[in-house]
# Entry
Amino acid sequence: MSRGHMQIGEVAARTELSLRTIRHYEETGLVSPSARSQGGFRLYTEADVARLMVIRRMKPLGFTLDQMRELLAATDRLDSGEELPVAERAELLGRIRAFEQDAQRAVADLRIRLARAEEFAATLRERLPQDATAP
# Structure
């Protein structure tokens, strides 16, 4: 394995994603291994891990694969190192801003859902006997 590359197992451990999930994201075009070993094994870089972490963070917020693809395309374009026309750069930043706002709304919704779940757990706890030896 060349220096700076990781096999899929290490990437799975670092991202807390399953091998199957990483392969699925590859099949759907969200991430591609940066290289292949002589034996044909997928090899990933730190940039690939960072990309997978973006995907992992978007998933619980309810973003679709198409939305993930759109955000990654925008960030890829901004990070390309090319001098972008002012209008294109503004449009890409506007897309990212919209994703950030959607993420903030999803986080607020999750906070509400968590509070309700905690209230429910507390209600159940109150119904239980306080004596630890009680059935």
